[in-house]
Specification:
Distance between the termini: 44 Å
Strand order of the largest sheet: 11-12-14-13-15-16-17-20-19-18
Oligomer: single chain
Number of strands: 22
Shape: globular
Helix content: 25-40%
Low-confidence stretches: 1-18
Structural class: alpha/beta
Radius of gyration: 25 Å
Protein backbone atom coordinates (compact mmCIF):
# COMPACT_ATOMS: atom_id res chain seq x y z
CA UNK A 1 0.00 0.00 0.00
CA UNK A 2 2.87 2.36 0.85
CA UNK A 3 4.53 1.68 -2.51
CA UNK A 4 1.26 2.47 -4.29
CA UNK A 5 0.95 5.68 -2.30
CA UNK A 6 4.45 6.73 -3.25
CA UNK A 7 3.85 5.92 -6.90
CA UNK A 8 0.87 8.25 -6.87
CA UNK A 9 2.75 10.87 -4.87
CA UNK A 10 5.54 10.96 -7.41
CA UNK A 11 3.38 11.17 -10.51
CA UNK A 12 4.07 14.40 -12.35
CA UNK A 13 0.99 16.44 -11.61
CA UNK A 14 0.49 18.78 -14.52
CA UNK A 15 -2.10 20.44 -16.66
CA UNK A 16 -3.59 18.95 -19.79
CA UNK A 17 -0.49 17.66 -21.58
CA UNK A 18 0.40 18.46 -25.15
CA UNK A 19 -0.12 15.46 -27.40
CA UNK A 20 3.08 14.36 -29.07
CA UNK A 21 3.76 16.04 -32.42
CA UNK A 22 2.72 13.81 -35.31
CA UNK A 23 4.18 15.99 -38.04
CA UNK A 24 6.92 18.51 -38.77
CA UNK A 25 7.70 20.96 -35.98
CA UNK A 26 6.21 24.46 -36.21
CA UNK A 27 3.45 23.22 -38.50
CA UNK A 28 -0.07 21.88 -38.03
CA UNK A 29 -0.95 18.21 -38.43
CA UNK A 30 -4.12 16.18 -37.95
CA UNK A 31 -5.01 14.73 -34.55
CA UNK A 32 -5.83 11.15 -35.42
CA UNK A 33 -9.48 10.21 -35.01
CA UNK A 34 -10.69 13.82 -34.76
CA UNK A 35 -11.48 16.75 -37.04
CA UNK A 36 -8.91 18.88 -35.19
CA UNK A 37 -5.42 19.99 -36.15
CA UNK A 38 -2.56 20.50 -33.71
CA UNK A 39 0.35 22.91 -33.90
CA UNK A 40 3.54 20.96 -33.35
CA UNK A 41 5.65 22.88 -30.87
CA UNK A 42 9.04 21.45 -29.90
CA UNK A 43 8.74 19.13 -26.89
CA UNK A 44 12.01 20.01 -25.19
CA UNK A 45 11.83 21.72 -21.84
CA UNK A 46 12.14 25.49 -21.84
CA UNK A 47 13.12 26.66 -18.35
CA UNK A 48 12.56 30.29 -19.36
CA UNK A 49 8.88 29.63 -20.08
CA UNK A 50 5.98 28.66 -17.81
CA UNK A 51 5.28 25.32 -16.15
CA UNK A 52 2.38 22.91 -16.70
CA UNK A 53 -0.55 25.32 -16.48
CA UNK A 54 -0.06 27.13 -19.77
CA UNK A 55 -3.06 27.91 -21.98
CA UNK A 56 -4.51 25.27 -24.28
CA UNK A 57 -5.91 27.32 -27.19
CA UNK A 58 -8.75 25.70 -29.13
CA UNK A 59 -9.54 27.83 -32.19
CA UNK A 60 -12.94 27.37 -33.86
CA UNK A 61 -12.47 28.98 -37.31
CA UNK A 62 -14.96 30.59 -39.63
CA UNK A 63 -14.67 27.66 -42.02
CA UNK A 64 -12.95 24.30 -42.28
CA UNK A 65 -9.16 24.64 -42.57
CA UNK A 66 -6.35 22.42 -43.76
CA UNK A 67 -2.87 22.35 -42.24
CA UNK A 68 -1.56 25.22 -44.35
CA UNK A 69 -4.53 27.55 -43.79
CA UNK A 70 -4.54 26.69 -40.05
CA UNK A 71 -0.92 27.80 -39.82
CA UNK A 72 -1.72 31.01 -41.69
CA UNK A 73 -4.56 31.76 -39.25
CA UNK A 74 -2.40 31.05 -36.19
CA UNK A 75 0.28 33.41 -37.54
CA UNK A 76 -2.28 36.08 -38.35
CA UNK A 77 -3.72 35.86 -34.82
CA UNK A 78 -0.19 35.86 -33.32
CA UNK A 79 -1.33 33.07 -31.03
CA UNK A 80 1.87 31.08 -31.56
CA UNK A 81 3.82 33.66 -29.58
CA UNK A 82 1.27 33.55 -26.75
CA UNK A 83 1.50 29.77 -26.54
CA UNK A 84 5.31 29.67 -26.69
CA UNK A 85 5.83 32.35 -24.03
CA UNK A 86 3.37 30.79 -21.62
CA UNK A 87 4.05 27.08 -22.04
CA UNK A 88 0.82 26.51 -23.96
CA UNK A 89 -0.40 24.70 -27.03
CA UNK A 90 -2.70 25.33 -30.01
CA UNK A 91 -5.37 23.29 -31.74
CA UNK A 92 -7.64 24.31 -34.60
CA UNK A 93 -10.98 22.56 -34.20
CA UNK A 94 -12.78 21.96 -37.49
CA UNK A 95 -16.44 20.93 -37.70
CA UNK A 96 -16.88 17.18 -38.13
CA UNK A 97 -19.01 17.79 -41.23
CA UNK A 98 -18.97 20.61 -43.73
CA UNK A 99 -20.37 23.14 -41.26
CA UNK A 100 -20.85 23.57 -37.55
CA UNK A 101 -23.64 21.56 -35.88
CA UNK A 102 -24.83 20.90 -32.33
CA UNK A 103 -23.19 17.46 -32.48
CA UNK A 104 -19.77 19.13 -32.63
CA UNK A 105 -20.06 19.81 -28.90
CA UNK A 106 -19.68 16.07 -28.20
CA UNK A 107 -16.75 15.91 -30.62
CA UNK A 108 -15.06 18.70 -28.67
CA UNK A 109 -15.76 16.92 -25.39
CA UNK A 110 -14.02 13.81 -26.74
CA UNK A 111 -11.11 15.89 -28.03
CA UNK A 112 -10.55 17.38 -24.58
CA UNK A 113 -10.78 13.89 -23.09
CA UNK A 114 -7.69 12.78 -25.00
CA UNK A 115 -5.46 14.83 -22.74
CA UNK A 116 -4.93 14.92 -19.01
CA UNK A 117 -7.02 17.04 -16.65
CA UNK A 118 -8.60 20.09 -18.24
CA UNK A 119 -7.07 23.11 -16.51
CA UNK A 120 -6.53 26.01 -18.90
CA UNK A 121 -8.81 25.62 -21.90
CA UNK A 122 -9.06 28.84 -23.92
CA UNK A 123 -11.74 28.71 -26.63
CA UNK A 124 -11.41 31.19 -29.51
CA UNK A 125 -14.35 31.38 -31.92
CA UNK A 126 -14.18 33.35 -35.18
CA UNK A 127 -17.11 34.05 -37.50
CA UNK A 128 -19.16 30.89 -37.95
CA UNK A 129 -16.94 29.21 -35.37
CA UNK A 130 -17.90 31.95 -32.90
CA UNK A 131 -21.57 31.40 -33.73
CA UNK A 132 -21.15 27.71 -32.86
CA UNK A 133 -19.44 28.64 -29.60
CA UNK A 134 -22.18 31.14 -28.69
CA UNK A 135 -25.16 29.00 -29.67
CA UNK A 136 -24.06 25.47 -28.79
CA UNK A 137 -20.85 25.26 -26.80
CA UNK A 138 -21.91 28.02 -24.39
CA UNK A 139 -25.18 26.19 -23.78
CA UNK A 140 -23.37 23.02 -22.67
CA UNK A 141 -21.91 22.04 -19.30
CA UNK A 142 -18.43 22.39 -20.82
CA UNK A 143 -18.55 26.07 -19.90
CA UNK A 144 -17.91 25.06 -16.28
CA UNK A 145 -14.53 23.62 -17.28
CA UNK A 146 -13.46 26.25 -19.83
CA UNK A 147 -11.10 28.89 -18.44
CA UNK A 148 -11.95 31.53 -21.05
CA UNK A 149 -13.96 32.16 -24.22
CA UNK A 150 -13.17 34.66 -26.96
CA UNK A 151 -15.99 35.27 -29.44
CA UNK A 152 -15.20 37.39 -32.50
CA UNK A 153 -17.76 38.27 -35.16
CA UNK A 154 -20.30 35.55 -34.46
CA UNK A 155 -24.07 35.56 -34.07
CA UNK A 156 -25.48 35.57 -30.52
CA UNK A 157 -26.72 32.56 -28.63
CA UNK A 158 -29.63 32.42 -26.20
CA UNK A 159 -28.09 31.01 -23.05
CA UNK A 160 -24.80 30.34 -21.29
CA UNK A 161 -25.12 27.25 -19.11
CA UNK A 162 -22.46 28.06 -16.50
CA UNK A 163 -20.40 31.18 -15.74
CA UNK A 164 -17.26 31.43 -17.86
CA UNK A 165 -14.80 34.34 -18.29
CA UNK A 166 -15.60 35.76 -21.73
CA UNK A 167 -14.32 38.38 -24.15
CA UNK A 168 -16.61 39.41 -27.01
CA UNK A 169 -15.41 41.46 -29.95
CA UNK A 170 -16.52 42.47 -33.42
CA UNK A 171 -19.99 43.05 -34.78
CA UNK A 172 -22.95 42.50 -32.46
CA UNK A 173 -20.53 42.30 -29.52
CA UNK A 174 -22.92 43.80 -26.96
CA UNK A 175 -25.75 41.50 -28.03
CA UNK A 176 -23.53 38.42 -28.12
CA UNK A 177 -22.30 39.18 -24.59
CA UNK A 178 -25.77 39.32 -22.98
CA UNK A 179 -26.22 35.57 -22.22
CA UNK A 180 -22.68 35.35 -20.86
CA UNK A 181 -23.24 38.43 -18.70
CA UNK A 182 -26.61 37.20 -17.39
CA UNK A 183 -25.14 33.92 -16.19
CA UNK A 184 -22.11 35.67 -14.73
CA UNK A 185 -24.31 38.14 -12.82
CA UNK A 186 -26.30 35.29 -11.26
CA UNK A 187 -23.17 33.52 -9.97
CA UNK A 188 -21.33 34.25 -6.71
CA UNK A 189 -18.96 37.17 -7.19
CA UNK A 190 -15.47 36.24 -8.30
CA UNK A 191 -12.98 38.82 -9.65
CA UNK A 192 -11.76 36.24 -12.16
CA UNK A 193 -15.28 35.77 -13.57
CA UNK A 194 -15.37 38.74 -15.91
CA UNK A 195 -17.16 39.62 -19.16
CA UNK A 196 -15.41 42.12 -21.44
CA UNK A 197 -16.98 43.66 -24.55
CA UNK A 198 -15.00 45.37 -27.30
CA UNK A 199 -17.25 46.77 -30.03
CA UNK A 200 -14.42 48.43 -31.98
CA UNK A 201 -15.35 47.67 -35.58
CA UNK A 202 -11.89 48.61 -36.80
CA UNK A 203 -9.97 46.22 -34.55
CA UNK A 204 -8.43 43.23 -36.36
CA UNK A 205 -8.89 39.69 -35.06
CA UNK A 206 -5.27 39.72 -33.89
CA UNK A 207 -5.82 42.99 -32.01
CA UNK A 208 -8.93 41.61 -30.36
CA UNK A 209 -7.21 38.38 -29.32
CA UNK A 210 -4.26 40.34 -27.89
CA UNK A 211 -6.69 42.50 -25.92
CA UNK A 212 -8.57 39.40 -24.78
CA UNK A 213 -5.32 37.85 -23.56
CA UNK A 214 -4.42 40.97 -21.64
CA UNK A 215 -7.84 41.50 -20.02
CA UNK A 216 -9.32 38.01 -19.63
CA UNK A 217 -7.37 34.98 -20.78
CA UNK A 218 -4.10 35.64 -18.94
CA UNK A 219 -5.85 36.10 -15.60
CA UNK A 220 -6.81 32.54 -14.75
CA UNK A 221 -6.87 28.83 -15.23
CA UNK A 222 -9.32 26.20 -13.93
CA UNK A 223 -9.16 22.86 -12.24
CA UNK A 224 -11.41 20.67 -10.14
CA UNK A 225 -9.78 19.44 -6.94
CA UNK A 226 -13.04 18.79 -5.13
CA UNK A 227 -13.68 15.28 -3.78
CA UNK A 228 -10.58 13.94 -5.55
CA UNK A 229 -7.17 15.00 -6.83
CA UNK A 230 -7.51 16.85 -10.12
CA UNK A 231 -4.57 15.31 -12.00
CA UNK A 232 -5.92 11.78 -11.55
CA UNK A 233 -8.62 12.47 -14.12
CA UNK A 234 -8.66 13.03 -17.84
CA UNK A 235 -10.36 15.77 -19.82
CA UNK A 236 -13.39 16.96 -17.90
CA UNK A 237 -13.97 13.58 -16.25
CA UNK A 238 -15.99 14.49 -13.17
CA UNK A 239 -17.92 11.63 -11.57
CA UNK A 240 -18.64 13.66 -8.43
CA UNK A 241 -21.02 15.98 -10.27
CA UNK A 242 -19.18 19.26 -9.71
CA UNK A 243 -20.33 21.49 -12.56
CA UNK A 244 -18.17 24.59 -12.24
CA UNK A 245 -14.45 24.01 -11.83
CA UNK A 246 -12.51 26.35 -9.57
CA UNK A 247 -11.17 29.52 -11.18
CA UNK A 248 -7.60 30.16 -10.03
CA UNK A 249 -5.48 33.25 -10.64
CA UNK A 250 -2.62 32.80 -13.10
CA UNK A 251 0.24 35.01 -11.87
CA UNK A 252 1.41 37.48 -14.50
CA UNK A 253 4.68 38.56 -12.98
CA UNK A 254 5.15 41.72 -15.03
CA UNK A 255 1.71 43.01 -14.07
CA UNK A 256 2.47 42.35 -10.40
CA UNK A 257 5.79 44.15 -10.57
CA UNK A 258 7.73 40.93 -9.97
CA UNK A 259 11.24 40.47 -11.33
CA UNK A 260 11.72 36.79 -12.16
CA UNK A 261 15.26 35.45 -12.45
CA UNK A 262 16.16 31.99 -13.73
CA UNK A 263 19.41 30.83 -12.14
CA UNK A 264 21.61 27.90 -13.16
CA UNK A 265 24.44 27.77 -10.64
CA UNK A 266 27.66 25.78 -11.07
CA UNK A 267 28.22 22.96 -8.60
CA UNK A 268 31.80 22.21 -7.56
CA UNK A 269 32.78 18.72 -6.42
CA UNK A 270 35.02 19.56 -3.46
CA UNK A 271 35.97 15.90 -3.05
CA UNK A 272 37.81 15.96 -6.37
CA UNK A 273 41.44 17.08 -6.46
CA UNK A 274 41.46 20.86 -6.65
CA UNK A 275 37.66 20.96 -6.92
CA UNK A 276 35.97 20.13 -10.22
CA UNK A 277 32.93 21.91 -11.60
CA UNK A 278 30.15 19.45 -12.36
CA UNK A 279 28.71 19.78 -15.89
CA UNK A 280 25.24 19.85 -14.32
CA UNK A 281 24.02 22.70 -12.14
CA UNK A 282 21.63 23.68 -9.42
CA UNK A 283 18.49 25.38 -10.77
CA UNK A 284 16.28 27.86 -8.97
CA UNK A 285 13.83 30.69 -9.68
CA UNK A 286 13.90 34.04 -7.88
CA UNK A 287 10.84 36.29 -7.52
CA UNK A 288 11.58 39.84 -6.38
CA UNK A 289 8.77 42.38 -5.93
CA UNK A 290 9.65 45.98 -6.81
CA UNK A 291 9.68 47.13 -3.21
CA UNK A 292 12.37 44.61 -2.17
CA UNK A 293 14.79 45.07 -5.07
CA UNK A 294 16.54 48.05 -3.47
CA UNK A 295 15.46 47.51 0.13
CA UNK A 296 17.79 48.20 3.04
CA UNK A 297 20.19 45.51 4.19
CA UNK A 298 18.66 42.77 6.30
CA UNK A 299 15.04 43.89 5.95
CA UNK A 300 13.44 41.43 3.51
CA UNK A 301 12.03 38.03 4.57
CA UNK A 302 12.73 35.05 2.31
CA UNK A 303 10.24 32.26 1.61
CA UNK A 304 11.69 29.13 -0.01
CA UNK A 305 9.08 27.02 -1.81
CA UNK A 306 9.57 23.40 -2.89
CA UNK A 307 7.50 21.67 -5.59
CA UNK A 308 6.19 18.13 -5.49
CA UNK A 309 8.08 15.15 -6.83
CA UNK A 310 7.95 14.91 -10.61
CA UNK A 311 6.52 18.41 -10.90
CA UNK A 312 8.07 21.14 -12.94
CA UNK A 313 10.32 23.38 -10.78
CA UNK A 314 8.04 26.36 -11.41
CA UNK A 315 4.92 24.61 -10.12
CA UNK A 316 4.83 26.17 -6.65
CA UNK A 317 5.46 29.70 -7.88
CA UNK A 318 2.50 29.46 -10.26
CA UNK A 319 0.04 27.55 -8.08
CA UNK A 320 0.80 28.08 -4.37
CA UNK A 321 -0.04 31.79 -4.07
CA UNK A 322 3.20 32.94 -2.42
CA UNK A 323 4.43 35.07 -5.33
CA UNK A 324 1.18 37.03 -5.32
CA UNK A 325 1.51 37.49 -1.55
CA UNK A 326 5.13 38.58 -1.95
CA UNK A 327 4.00 41.42 -4.22
CA UNK A 328 1.55 42.55 -1.54
CA UNK A 329 3.60 41.96 1.60
CA UNK A 330 7.12 42.72 0.41
CA UNK A 331 9.06 39.47 0.81
CA UNK A 332 11.22 37.50 -1.61
CA UNK A 333 10.33 34.04 -2.95
CA UNK A 334 12.72 31.42 -4.30
CA UNK A 335 11.59 28.12 -5.80
CA UNK A 336 14.28 25.47 -6.00
CA UNK A 337 14.67 22.43 -8.24
CA UNK A 338 15.50 20.52 -5.08
CA UNK A 339 14.96 16.98 -6.33
CA UNK A 340 17.14 17.09 -9.45
CA UNK A 341 15.64 16.33 -12.86
CA UNK A 342 16.37 16.71 -16.56
CA UNK A 343 20.09 17.19 -16.00
CA UNK A 344 19.93 19.32 -12.87
CA UNK A 345 21.50 18.07 -9.63
CA UNK A 346 19.41 17.12 -6.61
CA UNK A 347 20.31 19.58 -3.86
CA UNK A 348 19.56 17.56 -0.78
CA UNK A 349 19.15 19.39 2.53
CA UNK A 350 22.75 20.59 2.52
CA UNK A 351 22.38 21.87 -1.03
CA UNK A 352 19.29 23.86 -0.08
CA UNK A 353 21.27 25.46 2.74
CA UNK A 354 24.12 26.19 0.32
CA UNK A 355 21.76 27.90 -2.12
CA UNK A 356 20.39 30.06 0.70
CA UNK A 357 23.97 31.09 1.52
CA UNK A 358 24.44 32.13 -2.11
CA UNK A 359 21.17 34.10 -1.98
CA UNK A 360 22.15 35.95 1.20
CA UNK A 361 25.42 37.01 -0.40
CA UNK A 362 23.73 37.96 -3.67
CA UNK A 363 20.91 39.86 -1.96
CA UNK A 364 22.14 41.61 1.22
CA UNK A 365 18.59 42.89 1.76
CA UNK A 366 17.55 39.38 2.87
CA UNK A 367 16.81 39.21 6.59
CA UNK A 368 18.60 36.00 7.65
CA UNK A 369 16.52 35.86 10.82
CA UNK A 370 13.30 35.53 8.81
CA UNK A 371 13.79 32.64 6.42
CA UNK A 372 10.87 30.26 5.94
CA UNK A 373 10.12 27.18 3.83
CA UNK A 374 6.93 25.73 2.37
CA UNK A 375 6.46 22.74 0.08
CA UNK A 376 3.86 20.62 -1.70
CA UNK A 377 3.61 16.84 -1.41
CA UNK A 378 7.18 15.47 -1.52
CA UNK A 379 8.29 19.10 -1.28
CA UNK A 380 6.22 19.31 1.91
CA UNK A 381 8.04 16.27 3.27
CA UNK A 382 11.35 17.94 2.46
CA UNK A 383 10.19 21.15 4.14
CA UNK A 384 9.08 19.11 7.16
CA UNK A 385 12.56 17.58 7.36
CA UNK A 386 14.31 20.94 6.95
CA UNK A 387 12.54 22.39 9.98
CA UNK A 388 14.07 19.71 12.19
CA UNK A 389 17.41 19.02 10.53
CA UNK A 390 18.17 22.64 9.52
CA UNK A 391 16.40 24.27 12.46
CA UNK A 392 19.20 26.83 12.78
CA UNK A 393 18.32 28.15 9.33
CA UNK A 394 14.52 28.44 9.33
CA UNK A 395 12.28 30.32 11.73
CA UNK A 396 9.19 28.38 10.60
CA UNK A 397 8.24 25.83 7.96
CA UNK A 398 5.03 24.53 6.42
CA UNK A 399 3.91 21.44 4.57
CA UNK A 400 0.99 21.38 2.11
CA UNK A 401 -0.39 17.91 1.28
CA UNK A 402 2.54 16.12 2.87
CA UNK A 403 3.56 14.69 6.25
CA UNK A 404 6.21 12.11 7.16
CA UNK A 405 5.80 8.38 6.50
CA UNK A 406 6.15 5.95 9.37
CA UNK A 407 9.34 3.91 9.68
CA UNK A 408 13.04 4.44 9.14
CA UNK A 409 12.75 5.93 5.67
CA UNK A 410 14.67 3.18 3.86
CA UNK A 411 13.40 2.99 0.31
CA UNK A 412 11.44 6.20 0.71
CA UNK A 413 14.20 8.76 0.12
CA UNK A 414 14.64 9.39 3.84
CA UNK A 415 11.02 10.40 4.52
CA UNK A 416 10.86 8.27 7.68
CA UNK A 417 9.37 9.35 11.00
CA UNK A 418 11.74 7.32 13.17
CA UNK A 419 15.03 9.14 12.42
CA UNK A 420 13.32 12.53 12.33
CA UNK A 421 11.60 11.90 15.67
CA UNK A 422 14.95 10.84 17.18
CA UNK A 423 16.48 14.14 16.11
CA UNK A 424 13.47 16.01 17.50
CA UNK A 425 13.88 14.18 20.82
CA UNK A 426 17.55 15.11 20.97
CA UNK A 427 16.80 18.79 20.31
CA UNK A 428 13.77 18.95 22.61
CA UNK A 429 14.13 21.72 25.17
CA UNK A 430 16.86 23.42 23.14
CA UNK A 431 15.27 24.19 19.77
CA UNK A 432 11.94 25.66 18.70
CA UNK A 433 10.50 25.83 15.18
CA UNK A 434 7.15 27.21 14.06
CA UNK A 435 5.19 24.66 12.05
CA UNK A 436 2.09 24.91 9.82
CA UNK A 437 0.33 21.92 8.25
CA UNK A 438 -2.20 22.14 5.39
CA UNK A 439 -4.03 19.11 3.99
CA UNK A 440 -7.14 18.34 1.96
CA UNK A 441 -9.62 16.01 3.60
CA UNK A 442 -10.14 14.23 0.26
CA UNK A 443 -6.45 13.81 -0.47
CA UNK A 444 -6.26 10.46 -2.24
CA UNK A 445 -2.46 10.43 -2.45
CA UNK A 446 -1.49 11.00 1.19
CA UNK A 447 -4.80 10.23 2.80
CA UNK A 448 -6.02 12.57 5.46
CA UNK A 449 -6.52 11.04 8.89
CA UNK A 450 -9.84 9.46 9.82
CA UNK A 451 -11.04 7.12 12.58
CA UNK A 452 -9.88 4.08 10.59
CA UNK A 453 -6.44 5.29 9.45
CA UNK A 454 -4.99 7.72 12.00
CA UNK A 455 -2.46 5.31 13.50
CA UNK A 456 0.84 5.92 11.71
CA UNK A 457 -0.78 8.54 9.48
CA UNK A 458 1.88 10.81 7.86
CA UNK A 459 0.14 13.99 9.01
CA UNK A 460 -0.13 12.87 12.63
CA UNK A 461 3.51 11.74 12.49
CA UNK A 462 4.77 15.19 11.57
CA UNK A 463 2.50 16.95 14.07
CA UNK A 464 3.95 14.78 16.82
CA UNK A 465 7.50 15.44 15.63
CA UNK A 466 7.01 19.20 15.88
CA UNK A 467 5.26 18.88 19.25
CA UNK A 468 8.35 16.99 20.40
CA UNK A 469 11.03 19.37 19.12
CA UNK A 470 9.06 22.31 20.58
CA UNK A 471 8.87 20.55 23.99
CA UNK A 472 5.08 20.49 23.94
CA UNK A 473 2.61 17.85 25.02
CA UNK A 474 2.58 15.14 22.37
CA UNK A 475 -0.82 14.05 21.09
CA UNK A 476 -1.77 10.48 21.98
CA UNK A 477 -4.68 8.47 20.63
CA UNK A 478 -7.11 10.46 18.52
CA UNK A 479 -10.78 10.82 19.42
CA UNK A 480 -12.94 12.18 16.62
CA UNK A 481 -15.74 12.83 19.08
CA UNK A 482 -13.50 15.55 20.51
CA UNK A 483 -12.88 17.07 17.07
CA UNK A 484 -14.32 15.42 13.93
CA UNK A 485 -11.57 16.86 11.71
CA UNK A 486 -8.37 16.70 13.78
CA UNK A 487 -9.20 14.14 16.48
CA UNK A 488 -7.93 16.21 19.42
CA UNK A 489 -8.54 19.58 21.01
CA UNK A 490 -7.07 22.71 19.41
CA UNK A 491 -7.23 26.37 20.37
CA UNK A 492 -8.59 29.15 18.12
CA UNK A 493 -10.76 26.51 16.49
CA UNK A 494 -12.94 27.82 13.68
CA UNK A 495 -14.17 27.19 10.14
CA UNK A 496 -13.12 29.60 7.40
CA UNK A 497 -15.27 30.25 4.33
CA UNK A 498 -13.01 30.87 1.35
CA UNK A 499 -15.45 32.47 -1.07
CA UNK A 500 -14.54 29.86 -3.68
CA UNK A 501 -17.38 27.45 -3.04
CA UNK A 502 -19.45 26.37 -0.07
CA UNK A 503 -17.95 22.93 -0.67
CA UNK A 504 -14.44 24.32 -0.02
CA UNK A 505 -14.13 25.51 3.57
CA UNK A 506 -11.09 25.37 5.84
CA UNK A 507 -10.94 23.95 9.36
CA UNK A 508 -8.47 25.93 11.47
CA UNK A 509 -6.84 25.37 14.84
CA UNK A 510 -3.58 25.97 16.74
CA UNK A 511 -1.41 24.45 19.46
CA UNK A 512 0.22 26.81 21.94
CA UNK A 513 3.35 26.72 24.04
CA UNK A 514 2.63 29.18 26.75
CA UNK A 515 1.21 32.19 24.94
CA UNK A 516 2.85 31.35 21.59
CA UNK A 517 0.95 29.51 18.84
CA UNK A 518 3.73 27.16 17.77
CA UNK A 519 1.76 24.83 15.50
CA UNK A 520 -1.04 25.78 13.10
CA UNK A 521 -3.21 23.08 11.51
CA UNK A 522 -5.43 23.68 8.48
CA UNK A 523 -7.69 21.09 6.84
CA UNK A 524 -9.40 21.96 3.54
CA UNK A 525 -12.78 20.27 3.45
CA UNK A 526 -13.49 18.07 0.41
CA UNK A 527 -10.18 19.01 -1.23
CA UNK A 528 -7.68 16.75 -2.96
CA UNK A 529 -3.91 16.57 -3.14
CA UNK A 530 -2.83 19.97 -4.42
CA UNK A 531 -2.15 23.60 -3.53
CA UNK A 532 -5.01 25.79 -2.36
CA UNK A 533 -4.05 29.44 -2.84
CA UNK A 534 -6.14 30.93 0.00
CA UNK A 535 -4.13 28.79 2.42
CA UNK A 536 -0.96 30.68 1.48
CA UNK A 537 -2.13 33.77 3.35
CA UNK A 538 -2.83 31.74 6.47
CA UNK A 539 0.66 30.24 6.22
CA UNK A 540 2.29 33.65 5.75
CA UNK A 541 0.28 35.16 8.61
CA UNK A 542 1.73 32.37 10.75
CA UNK A 543 5.30 32.69 9.44
CA UNK A 544 5.64 36.44 9.87
CA UNK A 545 5.54 36.32 13.67
CA UNK A 546 8.64 34.13 13.90
CA UNK A 547 12.31 35.11 13.62
CA UNK A 548 15.55 33.46 14.69
CA UNK A 549 18.33 35.22 16.58
CA UNK A 550 21.40 34.98 14.37
CA UNK A 551 23.85 34.66 17.28
CA UNK A 552 22.05 32.39 19.74
CA UNK A 553 19.76 30.70 17.15
CA UNK A 554 16.92 31.14 19.62
CA UNK A 555 13.43 31.46 18.15
CA UNK A 556 11.61 34.74 18.73
CA UNK A 557 7.89 35.36 18.45
CA UNK A 558 6.51 38.87 17.87
CA UNK A 559 2.85 39.80 18.04
Amino acid sequence: MMVATLALLWMGACAQPMMRPQGPLNEFSAIEGTSALQYNLPMERNIESRAGFGPAFYIFPDQKLDNVSALALAKELKVIEMAAENGGRISVVNPVGDKWQASDVQAFRELIGRGGPATNIKVVGIGNGATFVNQHLAASDLTGAIAGIVSIGGAPGKVCALPVPTYVGGKNAAKVAKPYQKTSDAAPKDPLQQIVVNADANASEAMLLADAWDKVLSANYRYNNLYRTFYMSRGIDNPEGVKTFELVSYPMFDKMGIQRNVVQHPVVDTNAAGGVENPNKYLWYEYLPKQVQNAAKGTVPLVVILHGHGNDPRTQSETAGFVELAAEEGFMVVEMEWQGSNGFIAMGLDGIEAVISVLKEKYPQIDASRIYCEGLSAGAMTSNMLGVRKSHLFAAVAGHSGGIFSGNGLGYYGYGSEPLMNEAIQKRGYVEVGYCSVAGTHDDVIRYLRPDNWQGNPYLNVWRIYQTINDMEVTGDLDFNVDPTFGFKLQDRRQIHTGKSEDITMEFGQLYKGNKPMIRLIAINNYGHWNFKPAARLIWDFFRHFSRDMETKKLNYTE
